Amino acid sequence: MVGCYSDAMKVVGLLPFRNEARNLPRVMLNLSKICDEILGYDSDSSDGSAQIFQSLGGLLVKIQNPKTYFEGGEHEIRTVLLEEARKIGATHLIFLDCDEYFSEEFLLNAPTLMREMSPGEKLAFEWINLWGDENHYCTAGPWAPRYKDFIMCDDLLSSYSYSMHHVPRSPSSSQNTPWIQVPRHSGVVIHTQFVDQIAFQCKQVLCRMAELVSSKKSTYNINQVYADTLNLQGSTKIIPVGWRCQVPVEIVGHSDWRVQEIRSLIAIHGTDFFEELDIWNLDFMHEIWFSSKRRSPRVANRVTLLILTKLIVYKFRVLIGYNFDR
């Protein structure tokens, strides 16, 4: 790891992962150029991710009796990583996922930009989605570049509000400090997930199924939340040299580990339980459905009276602070 930029500054990367052996070398190479330490949490990987992470200089964080993803484990993981970073004196926190990396421009500008931050401030970068291969990025539609927060100068007060799924990248405080938007010429964050679009769809199928299993949301509501993930159309441009991957993206397609998880959930709950989810468009999902059914699935993509009633009940429970976990 590089040394601190100043005596009063300690930059720590926070990296949750599960079965990311193919992505860890890229993100660790990237983070090691700007971090003093990288803390990681391994969510029961079966591909040797924990060993790879440690071999690349990462410090593994443990949780006793951890919750699974279906029990709200994402909130627990991000919270414990934040706590451990504070224990080792972190002043600046970097929140990347394993399928992301900073462009070379930011690696050069990082010392200056982070030194200028005050406690509670966050740096937001354009989030650039590679599209179909490693040389093009999406420029239009729901996956066009947009700003997301990736770095925070810690105020020692911010925390993660509880959420069963989709916990925010960085913690928040009551101050609502505005993001500092980093201009494109000073750096961006590259997202590699859409290079392998079959694996991406496998992930979205599993996310929908997990939400149905673990929450009280209606199938219609879940379908609406994930509707944009079905849109894989978009114009593209060639990426600049400074955005190129130093470690190539591996294409796994239908061999993605999530396929087995999907099959396991179907074995436990049955196809009927998941019928209304908009998940049957992938080839192997299509085969699973039609191997046991002789009709098309009834996907909940329009509001019926029953769905409308369920939505009203769900929104009312959210409004009164209903505990969905009980």
Describe the structure.
The chain folds into two domains: 11-192, Spore Coat Polysaccharide Biosynthesis Protein SpsA, Chain A; 194-319, no CATH class. Helix 5 packs parallel to helix 7 (258-269). The longest helix is centred in the middle third of the chain and has 18 residues, at 197-214. It is globular, with a radius of gyration of 21 Å. Helix 1 links the parallel strand 1 (11-17) and strand 2 (37-42). The strands form two sheets. Strands 1, 2, 3, 4, 5, 6, 8, 9 and 10 form a nine-stranded mixed beta sheet that branches. A two-stranded antiparallel ribbon has the order 7-11. Helix content is 33%, strand content 15%. It has helices at residues 24-31, 49-55, 73-87, 104-115, 197-214, 219-225, 258-269, 271-274, 283-290, 305-319, and strands spanning 11-17, 37-42, 59-60, 92-95, 100-102, 122-129, 136-138, 146-153, 179-181, 189-191, 236-238.
Concise overview:
The protein has helices at residues 24-31, 49-55, 73-87, 104-115, 197-214, 219-225, 258-269, 271-274, 283-290, 305-319, and strands at 11-17, 37-42, 59-60, 92-95, 100-102, 122-129, 136-138, 146-153, 179-181, 189-191, 236-238. With 326 residues, the chain is an alpha/beta fold.
Write the layout of secondary structure elements.
Layout: E1 11-17, H1 24-31, E2 37-42, H2 49-55, E3 59-60, H3 73-87, E4 92-95, E5 100-102, H4 104-115, E6 122-129, E7 136-138, E8 146-153, E9 179-181, E10 189-191, H5 197-214, H6 219-225, E11 236-238, H7 258-269, H8 271-274, H9 283-290, H10 305-319
Parallel strand pairs: 1-2, 1-4, 2-3, 6-9, 6-10
Antiparallel strand pairs: 4-8, 5-10, 6-8, 7-11
